Amino acid sequence: MGFIRNDAAGLIPHFGAEALPWLGGDAQTLRHFIRRDAPTPPPHETILLDLEDGDQLMAAYHLPNNGEMRGCLIGVHGLNGSMDAAHILWLTKAALDTGWAVLRVNMRGAGPARPLARKTYNAGAGADLLAFVDWARARHKGDRVVMMAHSLGGTAALNMALDFPERSAALDGIITISTPLDMVVSSRQFHAPRNWPYIRYMLGGLRDIVATVPDIDPDLIEVAGRIKSIHEFDDKLTAPMAGYPNALGYYAGTSVHHRLAELTLPGLVIHASNDPWIPAGPALDQPLPASTNNEAIRTGAAIVVTKGGGHVGFHDKARNWHIRAALEWINRLGAR
Predict the structure, then answer these.
(1) 3-182+263-331, what's its fold?
(2) Which of 145, 180, 264, 273 lies most in the core, judged by the most C-beta atoms within 10 Å?
(3) CA 211 to CA 227: how far, in whole Å?
(4) What is the largest CA-CA distance in the chain?
(5) What's the confidence (pLDDT) of residue 193?
(6) What is the radius of gyration, based on Cα positions, of the chain?
(7) What is the 3-state secondary structure (H, E, C) of 103-172?
């Protein structure tokens, strides 16, 4: 096992092998769904943030377990997720145990924040994430603040950093896990016939989101109930609600593969070779870094593609390799 590409060599631990019984992309992807053993988060401070259009965002803020304060880690979930997603809960425990405060965020209208927003999040909703960045920076003056975003949340986070580089400079780094960089090819792979169980599951979650949008037109709920694919859902609901003419316009407008080289923050982009949902090609196609020494951490995106790992899986013998890799990487960022 190991890596197909590792621009962060020397900065992150080795990815050894997928651990039994979680062999293959599907098993790696489904491990948390099957086991349902994510740790319960400790008590938190509820954070409510007002947006200019009247919607609100919600997050949970935790102080580190050991009294040490390395900084604040902002955890962003993926599609159909929330601050209570398994990967966010595993990240929270690991970060709190190693001296990081954690801000578990709900993207607009996600999870328990659904009643607070008339709109909902999408891959281009990077502007919403700036509110969490501003809050974390204000609370952690002089500390490091890093964002770690998963799957579709990573696309939104990268759009934030690329569209608003000056405000995003409040971050000391950004990490994405299993993120669709090219939304067009990602949609194509996700809709492969082999993925029909995933499509069915994800559609169920998306329909639930639509059905609970405050003051939504009942006709849209009926439309959502008839949709048979994520592409169709994006075409008839996500795209028009986000201001795009159709699904292809939404995918093209939110893709970041063609401009990832413009990232000015230190970035770590982690992907697996056998992700059943999101192709590794757009990550592998990124230009190689000009420098291979540790100073390369100071700017731009370091691409890491593991041999195996699935979608937000990366379960080796110690489980959740990507969390250990992310924490080791951000600990090398140094003081602000």
Answers:
(1) Rossmann fold (3.40.50)
(2) 180
(3) 14
(4) 56
(5) 96
(6) 19
(7) EEEECCCCHHHHHHCCCCCCCCCHHHHHHHHHHHHHHCCCCEEEEEEECHHHHHHHHHHHHCHHHHCCCC
Taking only the tens place, the pLDDT of each residue in 15-68 is 989 999 999 999 999 999 999 999 999 999 999 999 999 999 999 999 998 878
pTM over 0.90: yes
Q: What length is written for the chain?
A: 336
Q: In the chain, what are the domain boundaries?
A: 3-182+263-331, 190-254
